[in-house]
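User: My instructor asked us to take a sequence, write out its structure as tokens, and then describe one feature of it. I'm not sure where to start. Here is the sequence I was given:
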Amino acid sequence: MDQVYQQSMKKIVHHKISETAMESIKLYIIDNNVKAGDILPSESELSKVLGISRASIREAFRSLEALGIISTIQGKGRYLRDFNYDAMVEHLSYNLKVHVNDFREIIDVRMALEESFLKKVITIMPEEDIVTLENLLAEMKEQITNEANEQDLVTTHTLFHQTLYKRLNNTLLENLIGVFSTFQRYLTIMKKYKTSNYDEFISLHQKIIDLIRSRDNSNVHECLEIHFKDVMNWSNDQKNTMV
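Assistant: Let's start with the prediction itself. The structure tokens for your sequence are:
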């Protein structure tokens, strides 16, 4: 028992050292005004400057790389990355996969986001983007006619929604829509989610295009509410089944 306790204490202490090393490297980056693209000092250099073992520095580097803060160039070293959403989106995708029961809340958030941004984009979307939407809708029709798998349809559907907000240049929104689609693909594979009525699915996307062509944003809420009705009903059915 004492031996197990001692091993646990060692793990806790090691974990704290690794955290300290990571925080120390972050402070070094800030204090020395390290900019995106700058090469960071080597493990041995930082070990001397920070007074932390090379092993702890190496582990801290791994953690920072996993978070998307730094990156490694083989043969050159580690450099500070520019700010990006990649790591955040990746971890969010993982968490969404775990908490399947929260899908309804996820859809509520997506609806609120899309309603707000669609109202903004409706008056500024150029004709070329509307044509792209029509082409993507035609592709979805073809996929349905050819009985393509649901995952392919989800991919095209995602491109449709990302194209809606292309002109807003909001990278986070684009990535979040990608996260939602990742989760939907997961449900398609693991929970056998499938669009219940393909004719209605196509019709609803045509209504979104018509809404944009009208340049009238007064009916955006109703349009999106109907658009997400199918997936919301599915999530409610799943929740009731689990009760």
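For the description part of your assignment, you could build on this observation: The mean pLDDT is 80. Try explaining in your own words what that tells you about the chain.
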